[in-house]
């Protein structure tokens, strides 16, 4: 059976993949500074005989393996992100981070190791498929994103990519479980910076000022009404104000208030409406009280939307490798963002989760005690390799 062969190959390379993960974990690098990580990935892919391009949009690596003579062979892209976070690791591990204040607290060390492992397995099974592979090691997922830049630099061309896959190790899913979901999986994380400009003065003489603080208070409560009153209750939207700053002391009305907020949604039309409503609330409330405003509204990554056919490939591949009971349909999307979405905007794509939570626990991403067991790496490799082979046969 094909899946037994894949599992055997994955088991054979497991120790090496664990070593690679530990090496990356010990030497975490922040977004767009993933130099050593990129070098390591590029070296491993070169050793496997892949054609490797480096320094794409910063530290990005694209490794291709053309395994077909036919001109109309399909090309599958598989992506991993490489960046770590500005977090001080609190875990007591023998492969604990050596870079002070920097930590792989989202599992991207695992993603990179899994992608290298997938390449090792697929290379050995080259005789069993007909098609081209492109492995993308991407910078900057945690900040402004490397996917869009790598696409603009041409990674979807020559040979032209037909489909894309990626995974995230996931802390709220039980260890070893694969979760899949067709359609929207993750949100578009937009944000805005707002400055409400009033006129400061003596706090005992408010009528001689334009007090931006009550204006800010009204704006913040009206922003909540956008989600509850203007968006269809069966759709998803979040507006959260994460920062508000103004003033110095009791008896002085300040000139300005600064607000920072995140605005998230799963669908393009809702996303556009939210941006329009947010500005309308700010503009109108400021106008009532004679205040001015400066609004910088920043559209972040698009939502991750999974292609139904690609999702089905992952579901069935995972079932072959893990058995049906370890593969679950995810009912609800997540309101977190992921720049894998840029690949999905260009070609049919699927992003899925591989659980890392020990039974009865939740592992929190981006925290100093984030960790996962090495045993999930082999599972990640086997599922991804099976899915790639199934894709070429679909
Ligand atoms: Zn993260
Ligand atoms: Zn992540």
UniProtKB/TrEMBL annotation:
Names of the cofactor(s): Mn(2+)
Segments forming domain Peptidase M20 dimerisation: 192-287
Residues that, per the record, bind Mn(2+): 106, 108, 142, 168, 366
GO molecular function, one term: metal ion binding
Keywords in alphabetical order: Hydrolase, Manganese, Metal-binding
Cofactor note: The Mn(2+) ion enhances activity.
SUPFAM superfamilies assigned: Bacterial exopeptidase dimerisation domain, Zn-dependent exopeptidases
Any Pfam family the entry gives: Peptidase_M20
UniProt KW Signal keyword: no
InterPro entries to which the protein is assigned, alphabetical: Amidohydrolase, Bact_exopeptidase_dim_dom, Peptidase_M20, Peptidase_M20_dimer
Presence of keyword Electron transport: no
UniProt-listed Gene3D superfamilies: 3.30.70.360, Zn peptidases (3.40.630.10)
Similarity field: Belongs to the peptidase M20 family.
Protein name per its UniProtKB record: Amidohydrolase
């Amino acid at each position: 059976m094909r899946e037994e062969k894949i599992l055997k190959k994955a088991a054979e390379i497991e120790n090496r993949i664990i070593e690679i993960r530990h090496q990356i974990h010990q030497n975490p690098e922040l977004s767009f500074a993933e130099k050593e990580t990129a070098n390591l990935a590029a070296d491993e892919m070169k050793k496997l005989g892949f054609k490797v391009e480096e320094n794409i949009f910063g530290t990005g690596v694209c490794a291709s393996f053309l395994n077909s003579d036919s001109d109309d062979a399909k090309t599958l892209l598989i992506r991993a992100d490489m960046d770590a976070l500005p977090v001080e690791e609190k875990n007591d591990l023998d492969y604990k981070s050596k870079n002070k204040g920097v930590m792989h607290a989202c599992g991207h060390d695992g993603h990179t190791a899994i992608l290298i492992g997938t390449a090792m397995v697929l290379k050995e099974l080259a005789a069993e498929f007909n098609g081209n592979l492109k492995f993308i090691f991407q910078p900057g997922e945690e900040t402004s994103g490397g996917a869009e830049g790598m696409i603009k630099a041409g990674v979807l061309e020559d040979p032209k990519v037909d489909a894309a896959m990626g995974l995230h190790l996931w802390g709220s899913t039980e260890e070893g479980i694969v979760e899949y979901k067709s359609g929207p999986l993750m949100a578009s994380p937009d944000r805005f910076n707002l400055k409400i400009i009033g006129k400061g003065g003596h706090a005992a003489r408010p009528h001689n000022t334009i007090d931006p603080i009550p204006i800010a208070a009204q704006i913040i409560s009206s922003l909540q009404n956008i989600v509850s009153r203007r968006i269809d209750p069966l759709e998803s939207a979040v507006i959260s104000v994460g920062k508000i700053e103004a003033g110095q002391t009791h008896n002085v009305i300040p000139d300005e208030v600064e607000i920072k907020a995140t605005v998230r949604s799963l669908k393009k039309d809702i996303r556009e409406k939210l941006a329009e409503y947010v500005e309308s609330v700010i503009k109108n409330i400021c106008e009532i009280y004679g205040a001015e405003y400066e609004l910088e509204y920043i559209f972040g990554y698009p939502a991750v939307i999974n292609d139904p056919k690609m999702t089905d490939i992952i579901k069935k591949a995972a079932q072959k490798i893990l058995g049906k009971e370890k593969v679950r349909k995810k009912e609800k999307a997540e309101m977190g963002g992921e720049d894998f979405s840029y690949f999905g905007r260009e070609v049919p794509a699927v992003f899925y989760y591989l659980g890392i939570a020990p039974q009865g626990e939740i592992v929190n991403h981006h925290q100093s005690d984030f960790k996962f067991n090495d045993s999930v790496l082999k599972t990640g490799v086997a599922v991804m390799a099976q899915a790639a082979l199934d894709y070429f046969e679909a």
